[in-house]
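re: the backbone from monday

yeah here it is again, tokenized this time
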């Protein structure tokens, strides 16, 4: 039996009953005029009367409330179907402006006019996303830090002050509470198939959103407050998301047609979810990139959940959890251990963890990554301006999973000229947004900055030599000797043939070497806490080095211009020439630190997995280097310009680093 045939629904029996049956039990026909006034406003009191409460503690009785609101929702749905688009706009559009995405809600109205269940589910996902963002903006009228979770936002005192507690209770019946319909989570986590989401609930949420707009307008007039909308998140550095480069990525109609064939045959796809996959690929063809990704992300989750539950022998986890338990979501599926402390078998099934785990961690979880699912589902992204570049990567990644879990008789499709390059790219993927990966990026950028020092304008050497006290001294020679000595100790940890005997410092401490080290493959999955704490320290050191470099470049350029224009006083001229002498020595010192940082970064996982080590003593070493770089930032700042003190500080720091290096306390030594 194909894996995708093993389940016909992902809703547990109680959840299925609540969503698909409970709101249909009362057969009454509800008069829309009971909740809609003559001037088109929502009669909130009539709506809230349908919310039932438990006698024991006066908390919401969700079962009775859903049953009672069922006919009301149906009445709203019929009402909307009776309106033309123009009539809806005249009557409701102005009440939707507070959401800052009126067009999305107008699209939702359009979907309600048709019977396509997939479009209704998509509309509901977009509606809940935009509504959550808008409610967060309202929250900030009264509070500071907006809650991240929708359930906490809806339960907040701040929203109850603006809209009223009874109104918020109505919303919580539909979204935000695991005891209610919980439509937002059920859809965004891929539990509901298209036919399991009644259109009348989508219609009711659209109706309630307009009603919230009416209440908000009254509140703003009374309090003289102004509602401000937080800016959308904009994806920057899109090239960093370019997992499947353009030369391999050709998502034309031919590729998408092959993808449609794979969807129908891949065991990664649950048959009841097939309409979502087809709709996602269709949306991509139509350049509706946000829609395509919104539809795909929950399907990637349910596909992986299907594998997760099979490989870990927990088929019950395929279904929605009850209010007393957790959903099986991306976070758990990507974890190293299950909740019973057993090892998660999903990475084993994926064979090459980088193909899925690292990609998903990068695009969904890592704090410095795009966090696409979070930002889409919480309304942080402008849906109309969603970049194709991001959609390209999600669609291409989805295709690789479809291929990976297709039958052997699909060999011809897997080997197709437009598919095979995607599989090759996926198989060699390396994390880009794990803290270690960001550290690598930092040190390379810092090295590029230091490399610019050699191109800085400078005064002729003979003019430097004529100034008394600036000639080569014993302290400088000692410093160069220590750099050479520490560099020699690093050679055993560096690639072969990277050092020239004629010039060990300048042949080792190079951008080319650093690039080679950063290209080294490191598995970043499941980094233990000591690894992350060490990397935090290494990144702080790298950031300080970069700031020093930028300050040196800025000061050197300004001082040279002043030198040429003869606007420097005598003391300033001497200080400028001291700076020129100092940065000749400071350059190899900073390059040495960057190489050491990178070697530590590529060793940290191996050391922490290998044997326990004196973690606290190692952190002391890092704090020593960090303190040195922080002091460098101070001394080399335009306000201080203390170059003699800079070299004195550098000499002391190098002596300590050499001493620690001799004792082999650094990770690169411990890893060997």
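seq for it, each position gets an aa:
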């Amino acid at each position: 039996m194909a894996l995708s045939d093993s389940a016909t629904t992902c809703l547990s029996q109680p959840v299925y009953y609540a969503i698909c049956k409970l709101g249909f039990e009362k057969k009454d026909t509800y008069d829309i005029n009971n909740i809609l006034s003559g001037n088109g406003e929502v009669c909130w009191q009539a709506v809230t009367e349908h919310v039932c409460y438990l006698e024991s503690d006066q908390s919401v009785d969700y079962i009775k409330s859903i049953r009672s609101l069922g006919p009301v929702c149906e009445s709203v749905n019929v009402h909307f179907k009776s309106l033309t688009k123009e009539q809806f706009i005249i009557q409701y559009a102005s009440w939707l402006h507070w959401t800052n995405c009126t067009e999305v809600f107008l699209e939702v109205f359009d979907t309600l006019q048709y019977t396509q269940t997939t479009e209704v589910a998509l509309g509901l996902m977009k509606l809940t996303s935009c509504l959550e963002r808008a409610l967060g903006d309202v929250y900030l009228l009264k509070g500071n830090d907006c809650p991240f979770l929708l359930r906490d936002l809806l339960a907040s005192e701040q929203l109850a002050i603006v809209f009223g507690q009874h109104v918020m209770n109505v919303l919580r019946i539909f979204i935000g509470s695991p005891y209610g319909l919980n439509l937002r989570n059920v859809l965004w986590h891929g539990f509901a198939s298209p036919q399991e989401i009644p259109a009348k609930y989508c219609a009711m949420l659209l109706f309630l959103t307009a009603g919230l707009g009416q209440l908000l307008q009254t509140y703003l007039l009374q309090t003289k407050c102004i509602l401000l909308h937080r800016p959308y998140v904009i994806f920057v550095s899109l090239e960093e998301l370019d997992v499947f480069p353009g030369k391999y990525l050709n998502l034309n109609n031919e590729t998408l047609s092959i993808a449609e064939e794979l969807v129908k045959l891949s065991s990664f796809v649950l048959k009841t979810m097939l309409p979502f996959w087809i709709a996602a690929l269709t949306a991509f063809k139509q350049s509706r990139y946000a829609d395509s990704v919104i539809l795909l992300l929950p399907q990637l989750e349910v596909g992986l959940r299907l594998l997760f539950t099979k490989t870990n022998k927990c088929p019950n986890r395929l279904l929605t959890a009850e209010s007393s338990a957790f959903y099986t979501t991306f976070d758990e599926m990507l974890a190293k251990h299950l909740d019973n402390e057993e090892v998660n078998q999903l990475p084993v099934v994926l064979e090459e963890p980088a193909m899925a785990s690292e990609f998903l961690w990068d695009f969904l979880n890592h704090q410095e990554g795009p966090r696409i699912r979070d930002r889409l589902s919480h309304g942080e992204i402008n849906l109309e301006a969603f970049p194709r570049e991001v959609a390209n990567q999600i669609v291409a990644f989805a295709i690789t999973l479809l291929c990976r879990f297709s039958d052997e008789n699909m060999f011809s499709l897997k080997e197709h000229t437009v598919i095979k390059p995607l599989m090759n790219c996926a198989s060699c993927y390396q994390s880009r947004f794990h803290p270690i990966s960001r550290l690598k990026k930092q040190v390379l950028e810092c090295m590029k900055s230091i490399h610019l020092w050699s191109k800085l304008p400078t005064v002729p050497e003979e003019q430097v030599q004529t100034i008394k006290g600036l000639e080569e001294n014993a302290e400088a020679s000692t410093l160069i000797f220590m750099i050479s000595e520490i560099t020699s100790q690093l050679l055993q940890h560096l690639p072969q043939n990277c050092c020239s005997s004629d010039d060990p410092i300048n042949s080792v401490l190079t951008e080319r070497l650093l690039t080679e080290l950063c290209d080294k493959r490191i598995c970043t999955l499941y980094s233990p806490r000591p690894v992350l704490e060490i990397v935090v320290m290494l990144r702080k050191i790298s950031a300080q080095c970069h700031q020093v470099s930028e300050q040196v470049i800025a000061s050197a350029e300004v001082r040279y211009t002043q030198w040429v224009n003869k606007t420097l006083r005598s003391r300033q001229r001497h200080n400028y020439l001291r700076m020129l002498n100092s940065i000749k020595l400071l350059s190899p010192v900073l390059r040495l630190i960057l190489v050491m940082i990178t070697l530590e970064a590529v060793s940290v996982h191996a050391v922490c997995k290998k044997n326990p080590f004196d973690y606290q003593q190692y952190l002391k070493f890092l704090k020593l280097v960090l303190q040195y770089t922080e002091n460098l930032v101070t001394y080399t700042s335009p306000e201080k310009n203390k170059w003699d003190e800079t070299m004195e500080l550098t000499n002391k720091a190098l002596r300590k680093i050499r001493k620690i290096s001799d004792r082999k306390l650094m990770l690169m030594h411990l890893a060997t």
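The chain has a mean pLDDT of 87. The radius of gyration is 31 Å.
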